[in-house]
Each structure stands twice: as structure tokens, then as C-alpha cells.
Amino acid sequence: xxxxxxxxxxxxxxxxxxxxxxxxxxVLRLSGTITAVAMSVAIGIxxxxxx
Length: 51
Description:
Layout: H1 3-25, H2 30-50
Helix pairs in contact: 1-2
């Protein structure tokens, strides 16, 4: 596993946790949270398999 893949495995969950925290604080609406989580997971998966 390359350094880039390890970085993606670390960064993607942090982004998801941050989006959920913003939702719980009332900064993001549910639709924005779902979009942020879905896109970060999709981008993480795409980049993980193309590295």
C-alpha cells in the first residue's frame, strides 16, 4: 500500500467525522451532510483504486 493510499484511508474518515460534527452543531443541513459524506467517500474510493 502506497503512502497516498494510507493518506486517503486517514483523510476520508476525518472528513466524514467533520461533516457529521458540523451537522450536529447545526451548521450543515441533512442534505448537505449526506452530499459531503457521499462525495468524500466516492472520491476516496476512486483515488484509492487509481493510485
